[in-house]
Design a protein that fits this description.
Layout (H helix, E strand, L loop, with lengths): L11 H28 L13 H4 L2 H5 L3 H10 L1 H9 L7 H38 L3
């Protein structure tokens, strides 16, 4: 009976960045929905809750450790960051929600960038040294 070998254990730093990315992405989705539907609703703004739909696409890719997903999520997060920066000094409760959104976006970007760097680090270094002229 063949038992499939388990996936090699990732270093703790890689796992930490993975879980930070997943947690901040899920928190960003929850914040976006709560913001538009309950915390700062205005007439006909429930449609704006659809803005979180693009954030739901990469959840599975982050959970299954697809490196490509970590790369493009680091680009996907910037419109949400810009929204938070634009509303940073708005009236309450919008300003507080915007500040939380900015913090979550920075955490997501940093987690994705560090995750990619950690996973590509050894292979990038060997490629860089092999391609440099002697």
């Amino acid at each position: 009976m063949n038992v499939p070998e388990s996936e090699p254990k990732a270093p703790p730093a890689v796992e930490a960045t993975r879980w930070l990315a997943v947690a901040s992405l899920l928190a960003l989705i929850a914040l976006g929905l709560a913001w538009e539907l309950w915390l700062a609703p205005q007439a006909a703004r429930a449609v704006w809750a659809l803005k979180v739909l693009p954030l739901t696409v990469p959840v599975k890719g982050l959970l299954v450790r697809r490196l490509y997903t970590y790369r493009w999520v680091s680009l996907l997060v910037w419109p949400y960051f810009m929204e938070g920066v634009v509303l940073w000094n708005d009236r309450a409760p919008v300003a507080a929600l915007a500040r939380i959104e900015v913090l979550l976006c920075v955490a997501l970007f940093a987690a994705c960038a560090i995750h990619v760097r950690l996973r590509l680090g050894p292979s990038r270094k060997s490629v860089d040294t092999a391609s440099s002229p002697s």
